[in-house]
Amino acid sequence: MLKTRDILDEADKRLRLVSKEVKFPLTKEDKKNIDTMIEYLHNSQIPKLSEEYDLRPGMGLSAIQLGIPKRYFVVVYEYEEGKFENYILINPKIISNSMEMIYVAEGEGCLSVNRPVEGIVPRFARVTMEAYDMDGNKVHIRAREDLAICFQHELDHLNGILFIDHIDPKNPFKGKDEMREI
Ligand code: NI
């Protein structure tokens, strides 16, 4: 079982790598990693389990956060109290996005950033992602609001970018009035 300590911390240079495209069929190892990542995110969002296994809660995880420089990420999204939808995006890209920009009022979090960071991370309010599923089928996924933010955050990881990179330390709330807070 994956533990919080297995997830790379921001000080680890591997998080700065640009991950490589995945070739199909997936290796057994990648399938196992995907299952492990989903299990972690699911358990981490259930208070009883997160406490029992000492898991820091998170909704998204990219392969590179486990030191695997491959272009895939998973998201476990609680769309209703206690109900979760799993998303597995392999070789993902944004094929369209809204003009409208949003940001998370309380700031974004990341399982690789183990300190509070204040500031605005501008994100598209809506995105359409193109990606491949585990069988190598092309899929299109539309997302809005917090799920859209999560996809953009994870896609950044595949390009070696952390959410903190988007924040100007001299003016962390720059552009606040031009975006909608969620
Ligand atoms: Ni992250």
Tell me what the structure shows.
- By secondary structure, this protein is α+β, with helices and mostly antiparallel strands.
- It has one domain: Peptide deformylase (Peptide Deformylase, Alpha-Beta Complex).
- The protein is 20% helix and 26% strand.
- The protein has 3 helices and 8 strands; from the N terminus they run H-H-E-E-E-E-E-E-E-H-E.
- It has helices at residues 28-44, 47-52, 145-158, and strands at residues 60-62, 72-80, 83-97, 101-103, 123-124, 126-132, 138-144, 180-181.
- The mean pLDDT is 97.
- Residues 110-112, 153, 157 line the site of nickel (II) ion.
CATH class descriptor name = Alpha Beta
- What is the CA-based Rg, rounded? 16 Å
In the CATH hierarchy, the third-tier topology is known as Peptide Deformylase
Q: Please tally the helical runs, counting DSSP H or I stretches of 4 or more residues.
A: 3
Mean pLDDT: 97
Strand order of the largest sheet: 1-2-3-6-7
Point out poorly predicted stretches.
none
List the helices and strands in order: HHEEEEEEEHE
Bound molecules: nickel (II) ion
DSSP strand tally: 8
Name the overall outline.
globular
Largest sheet, if any? 5 strands, antiparallel
> Residue share in helices?
10-25%
